[in-house]
Fold this sequence. Notes:
Low-confidence stretches: 90-95
Radius of gyration: 17 Å
Number of helices: 3
Mean pLDDT: 85
Number of domains: 1
Strand content: 5-15%
Number of strands: 3
Helix content: 40-55%
Structural class: alpha/beta
Amino acid sequence: IDENSPRYFIIDCSSIAYVDYMGAKALAETATDQEKRGVTVYLTAVKPNVRAVLDAQGRHFSEECIFPTLHDALSIAERNESTAENAVKGPAVEPTE
């Protein structure tokens, strides 16, 4: 993944009141395509009936990828991004010998 490419793709499902099989399939394919590119996919505000259709369609989104609000998903993505940047940069203080 290019360093300028997005690392997170957040889908706000708050306005999705209903999804049929084809809609669930399109959502699942979008998520799978992003994941193949190394992008983490988060869903927010997924209604129980929408989640049930996604699960029945065969694309199970783990609990770690579903958040109650967009703010929650953004906070976790930012925290994970900060942690990853710190891991790449190494320790902030040089070790003493």
